[in-house]
Amino acid sequence: MRPFELTLTQAAAALGAGELSPLELTSSLLERIDAVEEHLGAYVTVASEAARGSAARAEHDIAAGRYHGPLHGIPFGLKDLIDVAGMPTTASSRVRAAHVAQADSTVATRLFEAGAVLLGKTQTHEFAYGLTTPQTRNAWDPGRVAGGSSGGSAVAVAAGAATFALGTDTGGSIRVPAALNGVVGLKPTYGLISRHGVIPLSWSLDHVGPLTRTVQDAALVLSALTGHDPADPASLPTAPRDYPLPRDGDLKGLRIGVPVNYYFDRVSPEVEAAVRSALAQMSDLGAELVDVEIPMAQYVQATHWGLMVPEATAYHEQTLRSVPELYAPDVRVLLEAGELVSAGDYLRAQRARTLMRQAWAEMLDRVDVIAAPTVPMTAAKTGQEVVEWPDGTTESVSDAYVRLSAPANITGVPALTLPVGRDHAGLPIGMQLMGPPMGEAVVLRAGHAYEAARNHRGAPVPVAA
User: Fold this and answer.
1) Residues with catalytic annotation?
2) Which of 131, 181, 283, 312 has the fewest CB atoms within 10 Å, i.e. the most exposed one?
3) Any transmembrane segments, and where (predicted)?
């Protein structure tokens, strides 16, 4: 097995045992990037020289007995909304073409303190305001969308061009591309991971989280990122710092809520079949499946858009007026639409969110996790704008992808997506597990048990070089 093919957990074990050096691992990842980047377009910037320097320092520290933990010497990608001092943070937009960050974001600082090696910045849908990341191609099929907005991070991880990566999630932007590219993505509890030094899309909905090839890998990255940060007003005062996972796959005593409404409405038959098959396997592992009704489902889209659109426009107000021509047309029209949202509409969305959070808390008192499809369909063809459902209704591709992800952003609950199969075209299908606030341990446990039962090894996609 070549070093770039190792999962984070495997690479950390090899580095800790002295069977592999950080420089060997980083060089393998950089060679993989060179081989596949032209086909995938996952990166905005690749910092080859700096990565090799960081890997050499990690190698020296480990040899000297200064081992910082499982991320020490592990190469990663960072979504290009996240600041690293001295590097551009472009948000994949012409608006910020000349920007250079003056300081590290909190998450970058924590990863550097853990000894991780930055490979480069990954592509995002412009300012994270979209669900396709058009400049990046799906790791499984270059004629399909990568998903967004963290498309570059998901594709890099899926293709073995990063051992792990960070993304952001405002309405599914970690989970959607993770599902479409067959990797693991975790949107944590709102406020669990600091967003200081991260370009916002919507302050009250934004989350930062990891994309990895296994659930165990996600737990390792999460452990390095949590902790209160006074620089982020939403940062939670206390949080666990470790998320150990059991070795066995026993789910006895776990109550899994299976939605009877909303999450299986307007979903492709192959996606539904794969998710229900995964649920049957989890039942075989000892979990109890419990039917649940998703509360206030008819208000999800209005509440999500009522919060996100005006908040995004408020952040971009100055540049939208001074350089509107620098925005991509799809992003510009959304930002302009935000100027038409009244204060009353925004306040009504805030009130609806409060009611929705309360209703979800009551639902999650009866079950431990909610299991559902991550997205209603697999990766759409590039350029496809509309999907038609069997009942004759139509929906834009972006609306379809955000529909099943938005509730976890509105309510702030943790949501983990992991691969549970493929469709007839060989494209990945994802299932998300959602738990109570600060319930990362339970969703990771459930996902890890399912993954272990499937004997999922987290191998990268065999992209043609």
Assistant:
1) 79, 149, 173
2) 283
3) none
DSSP state of 6: S
| Spatial separation of the C-alpha atoms in residues 240 and 328, rounded to whole Å | 40
Model confidence pTM above 0.70: yes
Vertex 186, ends 180 and 188: CA angle to 5°? 145
Percent of the chain with pLDDT over 70: 99
Share of the chain above pLDDT 90, in %: 95
Query: CA nearest 304: which of 442, 416, 219, 404?
Result: 404
Taking only the tens place, the pLDDT of each residue in 94-105 is 999 989 999 999
Q: Is residue 441 part of a domain?
A: no
| Alpha helices (H) along 249-376 | 269-284, 300-322, 329-338, 343-366
Mean pLDDT of the chain: 97
Residue 124 lies in a domain: yes
pLDDT value of position 464: 64
Q: What is the mean pLDDT of residues 235-241?
A: 87
* Inside any domain, residue 65: yes
Neighbours of 260 (CB within 10 A): 11
DSSP 172-235: STTHHHHHHHT-EEEE--TTSB--TTB--S-TTT-EEEEEESSHHHHHHHHHHHBS--TTSTT-
Q: With respect to residue 135, please indicate whether it lies within any of the assigned structural domains.
A: yes
Residue 246 has pLDDT above 90, yes or no: no
Q: Are 84 and 118 in contact (CB under 8 A)?
A: yes
CATH of residue 186: 3.90.1300.10
Structural domain that includes position 229: 3-242
